[in-house]
Design brief:
The chain is an alpha+beta fold. It contains six helices and four strands. Helix 1 packs across helix 3.
Length: about 160
């Protein structure tokens, strides 16, 4: 039968479980296992917070319910952090994240080709057929400003004024 251990925390330490707690010291958060500090990070360092919370859960030290209650975080957010931790370890929280995907159809080179044809006066339909692109791809690129249609030249016709008698 396991021996019961009384919670032993310093004054000011917020318990997460009977073994694990945390304390804010100035602008630093310190995590304790019993009376021994095991990790600390700056209060505004979210990546370190996400990493240690995930690590506590993955190691079996703290249950999800205890973490969500202690830090007022959503269970779904914790699950995403745990998934990232399991996939890449602690390093996954400190690597730069990708910021979206690269263009697959309208690459910078293709935009130059399309724009040169637009400047020649060709229509979007003609360009789409010539380059094997979809018309809507080009229309959306014009709409969001990646491409621009050349300004139409207004022709001014000078009509002779009718002769007055």
């Amino acid at each position: 039968m396991p021996q019961m251990q009384l919670p032993v925390f310093y004054e000011g330490v917020n318990p997460i479980t009977h073994d694990v707690g945390y304390e804010k010291q100035g602008d630093t958060v310190v995590y304790y296992c019993g009376t021994m500090p095991v990790f600390s990070h700056a209060e505004k360092d979210l990546d370190s917070f996400r990493m240690i919370v995930s690590q506590l859960y993955v190691n079996g030290s703290v249950r999800q319910a205890n973490l969500t209650r202690a830090f007022q975080i959503k269970p779904l957010a914790l699950k995403r952090w745990v998934k990232r931790y399991r996939a890449g370890g602690a390093r996954a929280f400190f690597q730069p994240r990708s910021r979206g995907s690269q263009p697959k159809v309208l690459t910078p080179q293709m935009l130059v080709r399309v724009q040169s044809r637009l400047d020649e006066g060709r229509t979007l339909s003609q360009i789409a057929a010539e380059l094997g692109l979809k018309y809507d791809v080009l229309r959306k690129a014009v709409g969001d400003g990646r491409l621009h249609k050349p300004l139409k030249k207004k022709t001014v016709s000078i009509r002779p004024s009718p002769a007055r008698s």
